[in-house]
Fold:
Amino acid sequence: MSKPKPKVVSGIYAIHCIPLDKWYIGSSNNVTRRLDTHKRELANGSHNNLLLQKDYKEHGASSFSFLILIKDVPEDMLFAYEKCFMYKYDSVVKYKGYNQMFSTVNHRLFKQAYNDLIEKGYIDKQ
Structure:
């Protein structure tokens, strides 16, 4: 009997370097698979984000957590939600995060995602 396949879930994920309190935020239509890819690349020393790879090598796997921040995000809203979480965690600020740029997102979609995340309690209203 074969193992049941895990449900494919879209969403926003984070990689957190605990000792440095630095964040990488990403989005995927299959967050479990995407996080597994990040883990494998970091362990193999082949991750394309050189800052993240450097800190992973320096601090070790046990210093990182891999999190799904929100699930079941509609595919057309993935980048808007991702950008909201990048703001929340300051992940594009070099000393706070590993993201190198914001996603290009339609302002209307960003505002819709931002308001939705406030309503769901993921982001505090500023």
Remarks:
- The beta strands are 11-17, 22-28, 64-71.
- The radius of gyration is 15 Å.
- The mean pLDDT is 91.
